Every structure is written in structure tokens, then in C-alpha cells.
# Entry
Amino acid sequence: MTEQRFEYKTVEFSGSLRKRDAEPTLVEAAAEGWQLVETLDIDGTTYEFVLERPIE
# Structure
């Protein structure tokens, strides 16, 4: 059995983390197979979404 491997990327997001504001960015990433694993608060209005997806 092989261990699952992942690739990672970050996406910068500026604005509110309210669902209606952040959702389009995350839905677009999910359509490409990315999953949100962490949200980093850069300065209170800018965030980095850390995303991962399996390497095939």
C-alpha cells in the first residue's frame, strides 16, 4: 500500500471571511480538487487559504 501524497498551495483573499464573501473563492478551488486545510490571518483583512489536493 502506498502512502497518499499531497500538493499544497496558498490563495490570498482580501475582505470579510463571511460565507457569502469567501465562498466563491473556495468553490472555485474545490472545482479543481483543492480542499481547505488552514486559514491564516495576515492583517485582519487579508487572509491566506492553505489548500491541498492529492497527487495522482
